Amino acid sequence: MSQIALPLHPGPGRGPARIVVGSANAHIFEALAAPENWPFRTAVLTGPPRSGKSLIARWFEQQGKGRAIDGADRIDETELFHRWNRAQEDGVPLLLVADAENWEISLPDLRSRLGAALHLEIGAPDDEMASNLILSLAEQRGLALGEGAAAYLVPRCERSFAGLERLVDIIDRLSLERKQPATMAIWRAALEATLGPEQHNLL
User: Fold this and answer.
1) Average pLDDT over the chain, rounded to whole?
2) Under the phi-then-psi rule, with left for phi > 0, alpha for psi from -120 to 50, and beta for the rest, what region is 25?
3) Alpha carbon separation from 84 to 14, 69, 140, 166 (Å, rounded)
4) Are residues 61 and 33 in contact, defined by beta-carbon separation less than 8 angstroms?
5) What sign results for the dihedral spanned by CA atoms 6, 152, 147, 11?
6) pLDDT single digits (tens) 2-17
7) Class of residue 104 by CB neighbours under 10 A (exposed 0-12, middle 13-18, buried 19+)
8) pLDDT in the model for residue 100
9) Domains present along the chain, CATH in parentheses
């Protein structure tokens, strides 16, 4: 398991943005390392909310590997097709990031080009990656989690990028509101806030 630090400007009281590399996205970075192997030097990156797609796109550009278009599924299709053509003419790899799970493209020329591109999808984090995500999110906030936090939280929490981020956010907020360190009582309260007391008690 590793982390990639990005030279981005964090918000007040936050540490540098980081991408946790693990089961859900390791294959993405393997593919991004060799864009010359992509069909038509084009790749389409998708994944669940808060999974780091935009950060990965920024990292790809910072590495000088090629160009990235974040939110490609929200751009006018004719304009996107022109940008794809320019990348082809310049011989520059192009990474397109799409938020939609099923990106339906109306423009036939664009649909055929992107249909032939390399498609990369971020998966769900396994236990190890979820644990590292919790610790990384806490570190970025300057939140000191008590010993054993990840081991306690991971088997009981929602297993999604957005869910893990929401959980750490609630732990941080409760710790500040109660003026207490983020230990077991805070972890339990945060789990109940995200899952509901009934579901949490079943875990």
Assistant:
1) 91
2) alpha
3) 36, 10, 35, 36
4) no
5) positive
6) 777 665 555 555 666 7
7) exposed
8) 80
9) 25-121 (3.40.50.300), 127-202 (1.10.8)
